[in-house]
Amino acid sequence: MRYVKWTILFVLALFVFSFLHYSMPQRDIVRIVNTYEERQDLNDWTRMFWSVPDDQSGSLSNRDVQFIQAVKANGKTMVYRNEDTGWGWPPYFKFDTANLYTEANDAKSTKDAPEWYAIKHYGWRNEFLSIFPNAVGLRPVDGPDARLIPWGNIIILIGFALFFLFLSRLWAQFRERTIDPLLEDAEETWDAVDERADRAKGRFRGWLDSWKGKPRK
């Protein structure tokens, strides 16, 4: 039973970590090399990784999506999609896809004369599933070694920690006031039933002994 409990807790923790890692903002320092627009097929397996900025887009099997191609300082390439999030999840309330596309076009640079930008995004990049992180912001930085402090993530994580601490305190009070008394009552009831069963068993044995000619105890 202990292994089942820890397995459930591990799976739950993994789910929460994956959910936060996908939804929370991340920032990469990159050199933007190109932007393009391409029609994407949205299948049932990967639809959850694409935005649904309006009611109509949720029912489409394919649609045109804007992309931003970039290169990191270590030479690793990265491709971001550029989609509005609308009022959906994650709550970035992004409605300026066209503006960001224009900014990205204006920020292109070459390897010989690089210009570095911090691109804010959420989501994952997976070549096998053909999913891309969604870019939500862009700003210039001094260089590839610019220090970026994730204040937003720090505030969000502190908020989550306080929320779970509040829930744990509520659960502890609920258990102390409701569950523990019920368990104690159930234990006392069980002990009473067990005691009555022992007495009935003793009387039954005494009755059997009387039939064998033995004095009843």
TrEMBL record:
Regions crossing the membrane: 148-167
InterPro entries: Phage_phiNM3_A0EWY4
The organism's taxonomic lineage, starting at the top: Bacteria, Pseudomonadati, Pseudomonadota, Alphaproteobacteria, Rhodobacterales
Native source organism of the sequence: Actibacterium lipolyticum
Keyword Membrane: yes
Alphabetical UniProt keywords: Membrane, Transmembrane, Transmembrane helix
Pfam families to which the protein is assigned, alphabetical: DUF1523 (PF07509)
Protein name: DUF1523 domain-containing protein
Keyword Transmembrane attributed: yes
Top-level taxon in the UniProt lineage: Bacteria
